[in-house]
Design a protein that fits this description.
The chain is an alpha+beta fold. 37% of the residues lie in helices and 22% in strands. The chain has a seven-stranded mixed beta sheet, with no helix packed on it. A hairpin with a 4-residue loop joins strand 9 and strand 10. Helix 15 (609-621) runs parallel beside helix 17. The two termini are 34 Å apart. The model is unreliable at 5-35 (pLDDT under 50).
């Protein structure tokens, strides 16, 4: 699964929506006492580089025990659209495990059970409490004994699992984590695997997609029944169905059929968004040495989807706006990350599946690693480096908020809480990248092949991965797994150096991270690169028991010293170096990590013209867009410093960069430079930039530097429809900086459900930003949204009511507590209630 993406500025309202994959990094602030001499080595920082947040809340949840094996399941259903109902039957074959089985418990949430029968129609005794359907055979099944029976059922307006999108007459399902039980009675936990079939009846004008191969279609009156068969075992949270008036675009890799299910008016967009799929299948098949393991691969665009994508085996569901983008929206709307992430799950998540939710990083961290792998192969080393950098930054931020190990079994309401702490996706991928670096590519992928083939079609835990890697390489990974998988945090180094002419550079490092039962010292081998006029000299600093020293032989004086060259070790470092070294590193550093680090550190030295000039030069001419963007971020922090005129000039120049991501960053940064030439340039960007992302960023910045002047521009953009409502949502965000009474008059209508999700979330964010002194009125506007059909709107309303803190909102929040099923919303409602009550 890939977490949900909300376009542009509405991320501010959506809260934890994972940006294409990671949020923008924290932007540096200017140092209070920067060094005045470009050759001076500053002291270590007084403040810690990182502080740990509290562990996420929750109680432990062990692996769910089960006393039978679900061996095969057949599901037949039709949709009753007026009632939003799934009406059907399911036939299950189960086998007792190692002891007699007198009762078979199925997960079946909030259903009407019409009857349970055996073949021939004989009724089976059963009990149902609204959550668990318990089948009671006439005689207990002996160990290994089998029973086949059929459950007739219906579920009306399910709170999860099956979603009816009326405006498009499309239904899609969502099983992870434990929501299949809302539309099919089954065993709903990942530690069992089964085969299954789906018979889906839809009107003749519509199509129905499910897992596995399409066996047949047949006419049934005015309907068509689609028969799909998943004949290799997988976990039941991967059950899926999607129905609607879809067009199907055919593609293939070797003998693997690939299909893109899209809307009839979106064929070109589907080819653009899904089109890299065959390349990704090739990359993953070749890297793992395991050919794509299923009968086919379909991807379906889903409206109002609640995540970015879901890796249903052979039939991935994708957020339509995450895939079906116009050409102008690239590169921001690049869909390769989403496509490759869900495809990676077909190996890691579907073929091999976490046995318990505590080990979900084996699904999500691996899929994120495969996503990074594809980006590196498909788009080059610099893109791969930047992907790894963003992942590491996200984990640092996650540890600051709520530190936890990768393997973690605590949650409050739902296992989904494990997905959203900011760890399992990026840290899981980062851990795999460190293993890759430690082993080298050839040995790493040999170990991955062994792990993949050894545990194919089986549930796994982290110990299985460790054993497989040890078997494949002959190495002991117990310390590595102790530190990085079962432990938490990361090493933080204080690094110093001395230069001995003729012998090289000596580096000394010590670990200074806060240590406790979760985080100790890390044994790591840190790559170091010394840049000289004669070329780079490379070496390793082995850190053991918190200390490490090494001398790197180098010919000639060091022009720069790069700690953690290549960024392969997940760490933070306080490594004071003179400005001259950092400027050289920024211009000549061989990898993205080195140049981004130099830009950030130089941006903290605003009193030095050489420092500012180096960052401005990188913003203008670095060969990689990501470094230019980070240089722009460094310049943004220089407002109010002696470097402000130079920074402003460089940012204005950056608004003409050929890459829209750099122009967008520059437009955002100019909000801190309220000069007339800035306002003029922002007006030009709003009016004419080729990217709507840039136009949207520019209108927000214009509102910050010229609020009164921006209002007519805002009103103009509110009238312009655009893909994902980028312009309208940006204009609503810009209203936060104009006169509040006027802003409220304009934004209040955009809370209504006739507007897009993006516009409504932006309106909520602006409402909250301008609510001071009008908290009661703001709360009254938000309270009805707690019952909205869109879970992201409900979530934003709940968070907003918590911020507003009005006791008059408690009845609406408590009513939502009784009705809400989506855990993300439920936890925010609980938090709002607790905050208002002062708990």
């Amino acid at each position: 699964m890939r977490r949900h993406v909300v376009a542009l500025l509405t991320l501010l309202a959506a809260g934890c929506a994972p940006a294409p994959r990671t949020p923008a990094p924290s932007r540096p602030t200017a140092a209070a006492t920067p060094p005045a001499d470009t050759e001076r080595v500053p002291p270590f920082r007084a403040e810690p580089l990182v502080t740990w947040g509290p562990e996420p809340p929750g109680t432990p949840h062990g692996e769910r025990p089960h006393d039978y094996d679900l061996q095969h399941q057949v599901v037949r259903f039709r949709l009753d659209w007026p009632r939003h109902a799934v009406v059907g039957s399911t036939t299950l074959t189960v086998a007792a495990l190692d002891r007699p089985l007198g009762a078979i418990a199925l997960d079946a949430e909030q259903m009407t059970i019409r009857g349970v029968t055996m073949a021939g129609g004989r009724a089976l005794r059963h009990d149902y409490d609204g959550h668990t359907l318990t089948i009671r055979p006439a005689a207990a099944l002996p160990p290994g004994g089998k029973l086949t029976f059929t459950v007739n059922y219906e579920t009306v307006r399910p709170k999860q699992g099956a979603y009816f999108i009326d405006r498009m007459h499309i239904m899609w399902t969502q099983g992870e984590t434990e929501a299949t039980r809302y539309w099919v009675p089954t065993y709903d936990y990942p530690n069992d695997k089964t085969t299954w079939e789906m018979y889906i009846r839809v009107p003749k004008a519509e199509k129905a997609l499910s897992n596995g191969r399409l066996v047949a279609t047949r006419a049934v009156g005015d309907d068509v029944e689609w028969h799909w068969s998943q004949d290799k075992p997988a976990s039941t949270y991967l059950f899926m169905a999607a129905t609607g008036n879809y067009a199907v675009v055919d593609d293939a890799w070797q003998d693997v059929p690939i299909h893109y299910w899209t809307y009839p008016d979106s064929i070109a967009a589907a080819r653009r968004g899904f089109g890299m799929t065959p390349r990704a299948v090739k990359v993953f098949s070749e890297k793992t040495g395991v050919k794509y393991p299923w009968a086919k691969y379909d991807q379906v665009a889903a409206p109002d989807y609640i995540f970015g994508g879901m890796e249903n085996v052979t039939a991935t569901t994708q957020l339509d706006d995450g895939i079906l983008h116009p050409a102008w929206a690239e590169p921001q709307a690049y869909s390769g990350d989403l496509v490759s992430h869900e495809l990676g799950h077909q190996w890691y998540g579907d073929l091999l599946t976490t046995r318990t939710w505590a080990h979900i990083w084996l699904n999500e961290g691996f899929a994120t690693f495969m996503e990074e792998t594809f980006r590196e192969v498909d788009r080059g080393k610099a893109e791969g480096d930047f992907d790894r950098l963003e992942a590491q930054e996200q984990v640092v931020e996650a540890d600051r908020n709520a530190r936890r190990p990768l393997v973690y079994d605590r949650w409050v309401t739902d296992p989904f809480e494990l997905f959203f702490s900011g760890h399992i996706y990026p840290k899981g991928a980062t851990v795999m990248q460190m293993l890759r670096h430690q082993l080298s590519d050839s040995l790493f992928w040999k170990a991955m092949n062994h792990y993949t083939t050894k545990y194919a079609y089986r549930p796994v835990v982290s110990d299985d991965l460790q054993v497989a890697f040890q078997e494949a390489t002959g190495r002991d990974f117990s310390r590595f797994f102790k530190d990085w998988v079962y432990g938490a945090g990361l090493p933080v180094f204080q690094v110093s150096y001395t230069v001995a002419p003729g012998s090289g550079v000596t580096l000394r490092a010590r670990e200074v991270q806060p240590k406790d039962s979760l985080t100790g010292n890390f044994d790591v081998d840190v790559p170091v690169e010394v840049l000289t006029d004669a070329g780079p000299a490379r070496g390793i600093v082995q850190v053991r028991d918190g200390q490490g020293t090494a001398t790197i032989p180098a010919t000639g004086a060091p022009r720069a010293i790069v700690w953690n060259a290549g960024g392969w070790i997940f760490q933070l470092a306080d490594f004071p170096r003179p400005t001259s070294m950092l400027a050289y590193q920024l211009e000549h550093g061989g990898d993205v990590f080195a140049r981004v680090e130099a830009a950030r550190l130089l941006g903290e030295r605003p009193d030095e013209p050489a420092s500012v000039a180096a960052v401005a030069r990188a913003a203008r001419q670095d060969r990689f867009w990501g470094v230019r963007q980070r240089a722009v971020f460094a310049l943004a922090a220089l407002h109010g410093t002696p470097a402000e005129p130079a920074a402003r000039a460089a940012l204005l120049e950056a608004t003409r960069d050929p890459d829209a991501r750099v122009r967008q960053g520059a437009a955002e940064a100019l909000a801190g430079f309220p000069a007339e030439d800035v306002a003029a340039r922002l007006r030009e960007l709003v009016a004419a930039d080729s990217s709507l992302y840039v136009r949207g960023a520019a209108v927000v910045s214009l509102a910050r530097v010229r609020p009164a002047e921006a209002l007519p521009v805002i009103q103009s953009l509110l009238a312009q429809p655009s893909w994902t409502d980028i312009l309208r949502a940006s204009a609503l965000g810009a209203l936060a900086y104009v006169e509040p009474a006027r802003a409220w008059t304009i934004l209040a209508p955009y809370l209504d459900r006739r507007w897009s999700r993006e516009a409504r979330l932006a309106a909520i964010a602006t409402l909250l930003a301008t609510a001071k002194g009008r908290e009661v009125e703001a709360a009254r506007l938000l309270e009805p949204l707690l019952a909205d059909q869109d879970l992201f709107v409900r979530q934003a309303a709940a968070k907003g009511l918590g911020e507003l803190g009005q006791r008059s909102s408690l009845p609406a929040l408590e009513r939502r507590l009784r009705e809400e099923a989506e855990s993300r919303v439920l936890n925010d409602v609980k938090a709002a209630v607790a905050r208002i009550r002062g708990q």
